[in-house]
Amino acid sequence: MNKLIVYLIRAVIVLLICITILLHCVNVNSFTYSNLMDTESQTIAQSLLSEANISQENIDQFFTLVDEFNSVPYKGIVEQGWKKAYIPFFSYNNENGFAHLEAQEQENMINCRSAAFVLLKDHIIFNETNITPDRKLDNNNRFQLSGEEQLHYDLLFANIENSNTDSSEVLAQKVMGYWDMAGVEFPESRIQFIMAYADTENGIQNFHTGVAIYDDNCIWMLEKADPIHPYQLSRFDNQEQLIDYMKNRVSEVEYAAIFSNDTCLLKK
Fold it and tell me: In the β-sheet with 229-236, what is the strand arrangement from edge to edge?
């Protein structure tokens, strides 16, 4: 009987240790976010963009897209205030996304790249280059861009040839090498593209893009989660959390890299 009690006590102690470790991991890998449905979150986002020297024209264009998307009800998103989420388990419901898509009148959708480009198109330098992108990317997702802006968009996000890509190190080098050849230059700024690239059978592709704003005490991220999913403003305590969040976008591929502008943050 005494042995049984000892075993039970040991089991409870082990269980408590496991729970403590799990809770610690969950708290480390958590973040807060809003879907920009309310005035407070939109005001915060607009102030962050303005303080980062994004033009009012670009800000207005971005929030016109946000308001158009939010004009149709979307089940299950944050309508007021902020919500805490755990990075390993965070996702949107695809059924809700497709239901929202069917309820919209417009045929064109905005994806992550075009939403981010609307904000940062003036914060990249496009130097002269002999490269002509093979195809126009995201034809149905960038209707809001001018002709020259679409060319710059193609140069920035073009698929990259991936022969002999046998590691994430090689992948990262190919992405940065392509930007050099394409004349794409990223000036120093506290607001940057945050991008995930991965190797596919069709080349090295941009899997996800958002806008990261580096603040004194945290990192903010503005993004369109997906063509069928909502806009999102997130707050991360540090760069590790931001990288963990972006890793979810490339979790199912063998070779991938995450960039903040042209600085590689992670080679998966």
Answer: 83-86, 30-34, 229-236, 219-226, 203-214, 191-200, 256-260, 263-267
Q: What is the three-state SS of the chain?
A: CHHHHHHHHHHHHHHHHHHHHHHHHHHHCEEEEECCCCHHHHHHHHHHHHHCCCCHHHHHHHHHHHHHHHCCCCCCCCCCCCEEEEHHHCCCCHHHHHHHHHHCCCCCCCCHHHHHHHHHCCCCEECCCCCCCCCCCCCCCCCCCCHHHHHHHHHHHCCECCCCCCCHHHHHHHHHHHHHHCCEECCCCCEEEEEEEEEECCEEEEEEEEEEEECCCCEEEEEEEECCEEEEEEEECCHHHHHHHHHHHHCCCCCEEEEECCEEEEEC
Range of the domain at 94: 31-267
Distance between CA atoms of residues 79 and 35, nearest Å: 7
In this prediction, residue 25 carries a pLDDT of 47
How many folded domains does the chain comprise?
A: 1
Does 69 reside within a domain?
yes
Note whether residue 108 is domain-resident.
yes
Residue 17: predicted pLDDT: 55
Question: Is 24 inside any structural domain?
Answer: no
Question: What does the pLDDT read at residue 240?
Answer: 94
**Residue 38: per-residue pLDDT:** 95
Residues of the chain with pLDDT under 70: 1-28, 106-107, 134-136
- Asked if 96 contacts 75 with a C-beta cutoff of 8 angstroms, the reply is yes
Judge whether 200 lies within some domain: yes
Residue bearing tokens 């800000």: 59
